[in-house]
Predict the 3D structure of the following.
Amino acid sequence: MHSQPATPSTAPAPTDAVAHNGHRLSAKKFALHFAEMVVAMAVGMVVLHPVWMFVLDALGAAGLMHSPYTSALIMATNMTVAMSAWMKFRGHRWRPIAEMGSAMYVPFLVLFVPLALELIDTGALMLWGHLLMLPAMAVAMLLRPHEYAHC
């Protein structure tokens, strides 16, 4: 009995399994990196908020924290500073860091219009601003998947 050699159509394709596993691994790294940035943003909000309060109070400008516009921008800054530091630690270049920073501000800036028109209140500004950051971050990440899936 003579066995026939496997043809490309019948032979197992180990590279397919490796590519599939590699793809899943990249997706996991991508998702993990997203989660790490969200944690860094939360840390930034918690840690930097008291610093702003102290500095603004010392400058006699504590009232800025009562304006929905400036408080939203300060919060976005707190998140951006911490997230940017984490991204730099992870080896990202400045352009993706700036793009991700934009994802922190753009939702609030867009929502300032309905806030000014009194279509939404301050609570909605904060809620929707934070919720819209997540897809804004995902868009920034998907523009450069290689930047986020391999760190």
